[in-house]
Here is the input.
Amino acid sequence: MRRATIPLLLVASFLVAACGEGLAYAVAENPPPDFLTAPTTACELPRCQVIDVTMSDFKIVPSTMTTSASRVRFRITNEGTFTHSLELAVDRDPVTSPNIGPGQVGYLDVDVPPGTHALTCPIVGHAVRGQRATLEVTGG
Ligand SMILES: [Cu+2]
Here is the structure.
């Protein structure tokens, strides 16, 4: 009997650890939306390009975007049931939109250097479910 105790404890602690990871993955947070305002400045080609993005549970459409402009204005429509946000990492320096509630439209203006940049929803549990996209800046 005494020999069986340690292996049983090991199995039990492994199961607890496995369940803990499963619960962490299951959490998709749903924070309250921010107060949203539309931008008052112009965004026109060739310098600035408006890109329409639709966010849902848990996607960003389109998943790949391309621009030759040096500034982008994302016009983000949330068609999901969760709050979403759009984050663009430029040189590891993330720029993030407000939290956009279901049915709302939010904006993110950002200067973009040439290259390929990752877009994600920064709300916990969303990007791991596939809420990510890429922006390719050709630099005209
Ligand atoms: Cu999201």
In short: The chain is about 20% helix and 35% strand.
